[in-house]
Amino acid sequence: MKSPHAIVQPWLLSHPVPSASINKLPVMVNACTGKMGKAVIETAEINGLYVVPVSFSSEGRCGGDTYLTYPLSGKEFLVFGPSSNRKKILKTIFHHFPDLIVVDFTVPSAVNANAELYSKVRVPFVMGTNGGNRDMLFTNARDSDVYALISPQMNKKIAAFCGAVIMVAEKFPESFSGYSLSAVESRPAIDVGVSETTKCLIPSFKKLMGVDFDVDKVKSVRDPKSQREAIGVPEKHLSAHACRSFTLLSPDLTAKFQFQHFVYGTSEYAEGAAAAVHYLHSKVYLRDAKKVYTFFDALLRH
């Protein structure tokens, strides 16, 4: 098999940046074949981004050291499998595009390894993938001194919703003392386990109630039939939706408060990811002393 440099360099040279995108910020989107990767790529131009036509696949897309070409949004992508020499490939791309930022929407099992790769090459990255060891993720990013924005939630409205809940809990602790909490979330069947967004919110609801509530009490709805009938998710959005409902109920059952959202599709997540890229680039450009950020930082930039 040819060396990564012998494959990637000619590919990049044969796919020059179009004149209309020459001043746009270059991004590498991993994995381009997934629903979020596609969404970021399809909206890149209107969001001021130029997508480099190379991507690393999530597990199962390419076998062994192989690679393939994948058509998407009017261009051909060179997609490398999980066992390819990613470090050399990424170094070649980063050399070709010194302002590169990597956008990661892969799979939970790849989160920490991918972040470690980006850190070793010292390429700034936006990690939007759920899962992995989050403490290790943040610690390794800070220790590597690389610019990174890490957040499992790239939807501006949902992030603002989360921020509102957190602020209410900080300002009015135990204001729902004695109430009980029930939490339900529905996400695509492929997304296993309780989401990082819901995990982030549970401590705030515990603070509001002044009692413990374990994450394992969250009802995770992943069955498409239940999502349609019990949650009300439209058939066409079963593969891309995020619905959460937190219900606070008084001891005598006379008062009920609900915090909930129902979001379908991927467009607002793609817009949020683009905003995260531009925000991180501004920090790289200014050589900001702080290196690791969350999506809340991007929301509060003004």
Automatic annotation (TrEMBL):
GO molecular function: 4-hydroxy-tetrahydrodipicolinate reductase
Gene3D superfamilies in the cross-refs: NAD(P)-binding Rossmann-like Domain
GO process annotations (BP): diaminopimelate biosynthetic process; lysine biosynthetic process via diaminopimelate
Transmembrane segments: none
UniProt keyword annotations, A-Z: NADP, Oxidoreductase
Listed GO CC annotations: chloroplast stroma
Segments forming domain Dihydrodipicolinate reductase N-terminal: 26-136
Domain of life of the source: Eukaryota
Protein name (record): 4-hydroxy-tetrahydrodipicolinate reductase 2, chloroplastic-like
Native source species: Senna tora
Lineage start: Eukaryota, Viridiplantae, Streptophyta, Embryophyta, Tracheophyta
